[in-house]
Task: structure prediction
Amino acid sequence: MNDKYDLSRFRNAQDICYHRVKAELSMGYKQSHWIWFVFPQLEGLGQSITAREYALSSLDEAACYLSDDLLGNRLKECCELLLAAKTNHLPDIMGDLDSIKVRSCVTLFNSLTKAEPIFQLILDKYFSGKPDPLTLNLLGQQTTRH
Result:
């Protein structure tokens, strides 16, 4: 398998705890540490060693991540669990800092040419439809795609 971006780093990390990720999102309260490899952000946003290890370098890497059968489906499944939550206040589920990371993640994936609608739905439900400006800035965009 050609893995030019070493996406196996995400698969390996998720395989250890994905059942717990789903359980936490289903019950509406994140308790453990998995945000970086389940909701990856664009490189340059996170400063910790873990954030840098699991950062996506480009839109191309994000597209490869999303098109990966396992990773793409898991990301969409986690977004669906967030959409199913009763609250419209993401920090109730994720905490303040991880809510910012989710916003960055869905902004990145929503910036893909063939973006899945679920990413905009997350932005709509939890962020009044507004993408993360830092992610857009790093992508070199002034406005959201039309």
About this structure: Residues 142-146 have pLDDT under 50 and may be disordered. The CA atoms of residues 11 and 71 lie 7 Å apart. The domain at 8-138 is CATH 1.25.40.380 (Serine Threonine Protein Phosphatase 5, Tetratricopeptide repeat). The radius of gyration is 14 Å.
